[in-house]
Amino acid sequence: MKERLEALQAEALQELQGVAGPQELGELRVKYLGKKGALTEILRGMGALSAEERPVIGEVANRVRGAIEAVIEDKAEGYRRAETELRLRSETIDVTLPGSALPTGAVHPLNKVAQEIEDIFIGLGYTIAEGPEVETDYYNFEALNLPKNHPARDMQDSFYITDEILMRTQTSPVQIRAMKAMNGKSPLKVICPGKVYRRDDDDATHSFQFNQVEGLVVGKGIRMSDLKGTLLQFVQEMFGKQARIRLRPSFFPFTEPSAEVDVTCSQCGGSGCRMCKQTGWLEILGCGMVHPKVLEAGGYDPEEVTGFAFGMGIERIALLKYGIDDIRHFYANDLRFLSQFERM
């Protein structure tokens, strides 16, 4: 058996000298050292040896296995080094070549318009107030002069979580929270930006989730003329000095008197076009003098102070500012649409 082992070693080493590549090397490893290899076949006959012969043959077998494994590992290491050198040569980077320009993003148009609105009102002395998007029925409706039986409380208009908890339908609850935080002190000038939720079908002008900015001023001697002057200043900052506004009587439970505000059409300048349906005007927001009951809910005495409030949809402002015809473009994440705002 000793002669067979030594012959096997010589045969294996000779065959390994002429190996052509890593695949053939692996095949030879299996041929000589595998579970069904030549060395294993020889060692199966050790059971027939005497107790004195087994240690001797075992030592020879280990020496033969070690010699074959050493050559195989040396060959394998050589192939690994050659492969690494080939990859380094093929993947060499010329650091003197000009780099590839990476595409850069842009501020989303809704975020851009929201920032512009905030900047305008901060410049007018307003502060920014925020509140929870999951709101109580009291802050979302009751404190805003919307009793339990008011039509705007219809379950079809709001996302209710429980009978007393819902997703806010407007950012007006933040106004109540801001008034309460003042503990009856004035003046108060805040804007309240944020997301709101209403049960609505998505189409070109509506969405179940959209963004609002509402404003509130409370103090002594606040008049409707102050409201009009503020909104005119905002419109001219947002759409240009040539922009004009008009107020039309309307109704909101939380303001009295109330008005809808129109701005001269940004496309035709007021002369009439398809966008404004030949009227020269586009509706932009709602506003009014804060209702006495709302002032009371906020901790103010309506005999001592007055206030005005207004609210606008950020999507609506963006549609008018950029001449976009479908609100769904803002949420489609289409780079062809969004890339247009890189230079604006």
From TrEMBL:
Principal localisation = cytoplasm
Which reaction is the catalytic activity of this chain?
Answer: tRNA(Phe) + L-phenylalanine + ATP = L-phenylalanyl-tRNA(Phe) + AMP + diphosphate + H(+)
| UniProt-listed Enzyme Commission number(s) | 6.1.1.20
Key words, A-Z: Aminoacyl-tRNA synthetase, ATP-binding, Cytoplasm, Ligase, Magnesium, Metal-binding, Nucleotide-binding, Protein biosynthesis
Q: Does the keyword Ribonucleoprotein apply?
A: no
Q: Name one GO molecular function term.
A: tRNA binding
Its GO CC terms are: cytoplasm
Domain called Aminoacyl-transfer RNA synthetases class-II family profile: residue spans: 111-320
Q: Which cofactor does it need?
A: Mg(2+)
The subcellular location is: Cytoplasm
SUPFAM superfamilies, sorted: Class II aaRS and biotin synthetases (SSF55681), tRNA-binding arm (SSF46589)
Instruction: Mention one GO biological process in which this protein takes part, according to its record.
Output: phenylalanyl-tRNA aminoacylation
Query: Any binding details for the cofactor?
Result: Binds 2 magnesium ions per tetramer.
Report residues binding Mg(2+). Answer: 256
What family, per the record?
Belongs to the class-II aminoacyl-tRNA synthetase family. Phe-tRNA synthetase alpha subunit type 1 subfamily.
Q: How does it assemble?
A: Tetramer of two alpha and two beta subunits.
Q: What is this protein called?
A: Phenylalanine--tRNA ligase alpha subunit
User: What organism is recorded for this protein?
Assistant: Paenibacillus albicereus
